[in-house]
Amino acid sequence: MRALVINCTLKPSPQPSNTEALADTVISALKSHSVEVDIVRAVDLDIRPGVETDMGEGDEWPAVHEKVLSSEILIIASPTWLGRPSSIAQRVLERLDAMLSETDDQQRPVAYNRVAGVLVTGNEDGAHHVISEISGALGDIGFTIPGQAWTYWHLGPRAGPDYLDDDRGHDWAASTGRAMASNLVHAARALAENPLPAPPS
After folding, report:
1. CA distance linking residue 91 with residue 97, whole number of Å
2. Which residues contact 145 (CB under 8 A, 6 or more apart)?
3. N or C: fewer beta carbons within 10 Å in the chain?
4. What is the CA radius of gyration of the chain?
5. What is the pTM of this model?
6. CA–CA dist 51, 153 (Å, integer)
7. Cα separation of 101 and 35, whole Å?
8. CA–CA gap between residue 3 and residue 198 (Å, rounded)
9. Which residues make beta-bridge pairs with 117?
10. DSSP per residue over 10-71, as a string?
């Protein structure tokens, strides 16, 4: 089984990413279930605006799209800015939108029988809002969202320290992340054994 984590931090490599640091705890949990994990830091790529799988010369989204299709599990990891997903996360969701019109050889939307989860960091209130926005979008596209397929970290409704600068709350976020990983893996296995059919015409 394979998983893809798309880190939607605003910080290009090699800058440290708080979102990636929290994602590492979920990645470790996925690996404990024998899942192979690939990570994409979207800000490092030239991902063009649009809602098509390929927006033309120089667009680097098609390679990410192939990674999505080769994975049973997708995790969108985003910081919280102004109580909302990052602009990079929004761009990723807009590009995933193209999957609505893509089907497999059984006429199923290509997101069917794949599971997705959300991971959020930030020093502002709004983690549950960000989780809801991203989960709702992924569900619209066709991904299955298991119960409690999320984790987050922040220190309340005001500016404060970053994940990498403060150990408070790490144990809770990691524990929730382990539950997230387990729920994603077991839901993906259930769908592999009993896949969703194509929607009725």
Report:
1. 10
2. 115, 116, 117, 135, 138, 139
3. C
4. 16
5. 0.96
6. 30
7. 28
8. 23
9. 75
10. SPPTTS--HHHHHHHHHHHHHHHTT-EEEEEEGGGS---SSSSS--STT--HHHHHHHHHT-
The encoded tokens of residue 37 equal 């994990």
Question: 181: Cβ–Cβ under 8 A, 6 or more apart, which residues?
Answer: 26, 29, 30, 32, 33, 35
Identify the CA nearest to 41 among candidates 15, 76, 67, 6.
6
What residues does 144 pair with on adjacent strands?
Answer: 115
| 67's tokens | 């990674």
Maximum Cα interatomic distance, the chain, rounded to a whole number of Å: 53
Q: What is the pLDDT of residue 162?
A: 86
Tokens of 38: 């690939």
pLDDT of residue 125: 65
What whole-number distance in Å separates Cα of residue 191 and Cα of residue 85?
28
* Residue 17 in tokens: 């990413």
Q: What is the DSSP string of 114-143?
A: -EEEEEEE-SSS-HHHHHHHHHHHHHHHT-
Number of helices followed by number of strands (H, E) in the chain: 5, 6
pLDDT tens profile 143-171: 999 999 999 998 766 677 889 988 988 99
Contact 152, 120 (CB under 8 A): yes
Task: Let me know: does 68 contact 112? Beta carbons within 8 Å.
Answer: no
